[in-house]
Amino acid sequence: MKLVLLSGGSGKRLWPLSNDARSKQFLQVLQNDKGEKESMVQRVWRQLESVGLSDDVLVATGKSQTEILQRQLRHLARIVVEPERRDTFPAIALAATYLYSIAGTGLNEVVAVLPVDPYVENDFFHYIKRLERCIGESGADLALIGVKPTYPSGKYGYIIPKQGGGQADAWYQPVHRFTEKPSEQEAEGLIAQQALWNCGVFAFKLNYVINLLMEKGLPIQYEEMLKQYHKTPNISFDYEVVEKAERVVVVPYEGYWKDLGTWNTLTEEMSQNTIGKAVICERSSNTHVVNELDVPVTVIGLKDIVVAASPDGILVADKASSPRLKELLKHTDQPPMYEEKRWGEYKVLDFKKLEDGSEVLTRLVQMTEGQCLSYHSHEHYSECWTIVSGTGQFALDGKIVRVCAGDMLQIPAGAPHSLKALTDMQWLEVHRGRELHTENTTRLLTQWAEIEQHFETYSGSPKKDDNLMEGA
C-alpha cells in the first residue's frame, strides 16, 4: 500500500503564526515524548515511522511549502510539487500520475490518502493499514475511515452508513450518503443514524483514479500532468469523486481523533501555557501565549484567551471565537514575514516604500551549518549583507571567498550569488529595489558541489584573493 499525504492550507486559521509559507501543520507548538517541540507534520511522520509506513509515503504540496517540508522531515519524504495552488482533486490526480508513471506502482496497488495534520494516537494508523484489506474484501471503489462523533459538531462533514446494509459482524459498512457541515441540531439527528465524522482519509486502487483521469481526458503521465495542471477541475476530491462513486464503504474508528485547525483546539493539546517571552499572572486561567517576537508579552487577569505574536502580526482572541479568524482575514494578502527554508529561516524586520517608488526590506537570516543557498539572482533589486556571526563561503563574480562576522557583502541586481555555511551563520540583509515581496528569483544551481564545478568550468579555477579558502 502507498500513502499520499496532502499538505496544503492558506495559513489563515492559526494566524499570525501561520501564513502561506508556514501553514498550521508546521507550527512547532506540540511536544513529543522526549519533551522536544514538534509540529503536526513532524508528529505524523514520527507515527508513520513507528508503524512501518513511512517508506511508502508521498507528500503532495505547493511550492511555498516545499522547503519547510524538506527541513522538518529531514529530507526523508518523497514530495510532488503542485505547479499552482488548487484543490484536493488536482493534488491527488498529480500524486496518482507520479505513482503510476514515475514510481512504477502497479495499477492494483491500494493508495491511501490522508491529511498531513491529524492529531491521533498511533492506533489510528493501524486502521489506515486495514483499508488495503477493506478494498480487497469489499470490492468497493473507495474505502473511508469515519470517526465516531463525541459531540454534535457542525464543523465536520458526516458519513451516513446504510441502515442494515451490511452484515451484523462486519468491520466496515456500505455508505448511504454524505452531509457537509450540518447545524448542531441536524448533527444530533445524524448521530442517531450512526453517522461518522469524515476525517478526510480514504483509499482506492490506483487503477480507479487512473481510469477516472482517462475518462475526463486528463493526462496519466506525470510530466504531462504538470504541464496541464491548470486544466484540472479546481474542486475537492470529495465532491469530484467520493460523492459520485457507486461503491463506497467506511471503516468506523472509535479512538482519539482531533482537528487542530483553530486556536481553541490547538491550545487544548499544548503541554505548556507559554512559548517564548511571556508572563501570565496567577489570576489568569485557561490562557495561552505563543510569542515569536523578541519583546515580552504579559497577560493579567484574563481567562479563556489566546495571545499569539509573530513578525506577521499580533492576535488577542477569546478562544471560543477564534474559529472566526479565517473569515475575518479572507481579504488580507500580506506576504509572509517569517519563513522556514530547507537551509534555515528568515524573519523580516522592516519594510517600507520610499518617495521615489522604490522599496527597502530588511531581514535577519539564519543558516544551519553545512547548508547552502541556491546559486541565484534577483533582477529587480540589489542586496547588502552584513555577517553577524559564523563563517561561510560566498560565491559571486567568479570568486568563492571566505566570509565571517563583520564582513559586508554588496550584491548588484541581476548578479548570481550563493553562500555555504561552514558553521551556523546569521546575517542581516537589506534589499533595495522593486517587487521585493514577489517571487522573482532565478535559480541556476542548487548544490554547493555544482556551484564549485560551475565556477571551475566557466572561470577556470575559482579566482584567488586574500580571503579565499584553501581548497574552495
From TrEMBL:
Domain Nucleotidyl transferase: 4-271
Domain Cupin type-2 intervals: 365-430
Entries under SUPFAM superfamilies matching the protein: Nucleotide-diphospho-sugar transferases, RmlC-like cupins
InterPro entries: Cupin_2, Mannose-6P_isomerase_type2, NTP_transferase_dom, Nucleotide-diphossugar_trans, RmlC-like_jellyroll, RmlC_Cupin_sf
Protein's UniProt name: Sugar phosphate nucleotidyltransferase
